[in-house]
Amino acid sequence: MSRTFQLGSVVFLTSVLFACQEKTADTHTPVSTTTENAVTTVVQEKSQPRHEPQFASQPLVDHIFTADPSAHVFNGRLYIYPSHDIKTDIATSGEGDRFDMKDYHVLSMDAVGGEVTDHGVALALEDVPWASRQLWAPDTAEKAGKYYLYFPAKDQQGIFRIGVAASDSPSGPFTAEPTPIKGSYSIDPAVFKDTDGSYYLYVGGIWGGQLQRWSSGSYQTSDQYPADDQPALMPKIARLDESMLNLAEDLKDVQLLDQQGQPLLASDTERRFFEAAWVHKYNGRYYFSYSTGDTHNIAYAVGDSPYGPFTYQGIILEPVLGWTNHHSIVEFNGKWYLFYHDSQLSGGKTHLRNVKVTELTHHADGSIQTLSAFKK
After folding, report:
1. What residues does 315 pair with on adjacent strands?
2. Could you tell me which residues come within 8 angstroms of residue 369 by beta carbon, excluding any fewer than 6 positions away?
3. What is the tens place of the pLDDT at every residue in 352-361?
4. Residue 214: which residues within 8 A CB-CB, separation 6 or more?
C-alpha cells in the first residue's frame, strides 16, 4: 500500500545532534530543498545543549529511516530507491553488522518540492531465496518497459553478492531471481544506461563491503589491503547482457587517476574510492562519483568512456551528520539534482538515516559546484 505525504516541518532534538556526530563539515554552502511531514521519528536522549546545526535540506520522508538513495526518472516521474534503515540491538562492527536492513521501499514524486509517495515494501529479504541478511544500497534500471532492481545481500556463506529482481512497475513489487548474478560480489550496485542503449553495472565497497577480500580474483576469508604506496582498491564494472539478468563480461577495475595520470594510492584517503559508485553523463563526458568513506566526502572523477579511466576532479558533497555518505545524481525537468542522506532524524545515529535532495550545478567548464549539507 502506498502512502503520500504533504510538505511540512521536521521536528528534531537539536541537543543530541553534535553529541552523537562522528563527522561533519566545517565549511558551508547554502542549498535548499524540501521536507516531508508524516509521523516524525525522533530519538530523544538527554545531553547538554550545543550549537544548533542549520541543515541546508530536510528529509524527504520521516515516517521511516531511509538511506543510499538511487534516483531515476521513469515516465516523467522521479523514483527514489533507498535502503531502509531499522533500529537494532546489533553492536557496531567493522563488518557493518548494525546495518541490518530487511526490505526495500520505493519513493516517488512528480516534482522536487511536491508530495512524496511511499509505495510500500517493494522487495523483502524473505523473498530472496539465496540471501541471508543485509539488504544494502540498491539501484534500478528500466529496459523495454521492464524494471530491474539490483541489490546486494549476504549469501548463506556470509559473502556479499549482487542480486536482481524484476517488475512491470517502477514501484514494484519486484520478484527476485533465485540466485545472485553469476560472477558478482561486493556491494553498492549502480546501473548506468549509455546513450547507445548499453547498460553497465558498477559495484564495490571496502571494509564491510568486502572488496578487499577479492584482490586475488577469488574470495578470501581475510582482508587483503594494498600497501599505502600502492594503487588503492578500485571499483568494478561489467556490461550487462541483453536479459539484464547477467554480466556480459567479467568484472574489471575502474581506474581512478590523479591529475598526472597515476592511480590514486591506498594512502590517499581524501580521494580514493571507498564505496557508493554512481555515473552520469554530461556534455558527452562520463562523471564517476563515489564516497571516500572514512573521510566522508562525495568525490568525482571524469572520463571519456563508461569503463574509464576517470581523472579525479574534486568534491561534490562535504561530510554530513553521521558517518556514511551516499548519493545519486539525476536530471529532471531541465535541472540536475543530488540525492544524498544524513542522520538528522535520529540525532546523528549512523545506522538510522534519512534521504534528502538538493539542486546540483555544473559550471561552464564542466566542473561541479561543491555543496555542504549545512547552511552558513
Report:
1. 299
2. 29, 360, 361, 362, 363
3. 999 999 999 9
4. 185, 186, 220
Does residue 292 come out as left (phi exceeding 0), alpha (psi in the -120 to 50 range) or beta? alpha
Read off the C-alpha cell for 270: 581524501
Q: What is the mean pLDDT of the chain?
A: 90
- Residue 114, CB half-sphere, CA atoms under 13 Å: how many? 10
CA-based R_g, the chain, Å: 19
Q: How confident is the model at residue 91 (pLDDT cuts 50, 70, 90)?
A: confident
CA distances from 258 to 146, 147, 266, 360 (A): 39, 36, 13, 24
- Minimal CA–CA distance to 87: which of 43, 128, 132, 49? 43
* pLDDT at site 45: 39
Neighbours of 15 (CB within 10 A): 16
Q: Which residue has the cell 597515476?
A: 262
Residues 6+ apart with CB under 8 A from 122: 103, 104, 105, 106, 149, 167, 171, 172, 173, 174
Give the C-alpha separation, 278 to 25, whole Å. Answer: 22
Distance of alpha carbon 225 from alpha carbon 220, whole angstroms: 12
Catalytic residue set: 68, 275
Specify the pLDDT at position 95: 83
Q: From residue 101, give the alpha-carbon distance in Å to each of 91, 135, 211, 338, 356.
A: 14, 5, 20, 23, 19
Does the predicted TM-score (pTM) go above 0.85? yes
User: Residue 191 belongs to what H/E stretch?
Assistant: strand 190-193
Domains annotated for the chain, with CATH where assigned, are: 3-360 (2.115.10.20)
**Would you say how long the chain is, in residues?**
376
Task: Give CA separation, 353 vs 91, 158, 170, in Å.
Answer: 17, 24, 23
d(Cα 231, Cα 338) in Å, to the nearest integer?
Answer: 29
pLDDT (tens digit, 9 = 90+) per residue, 41-61?
A: 333 334 444 567 899 999 999
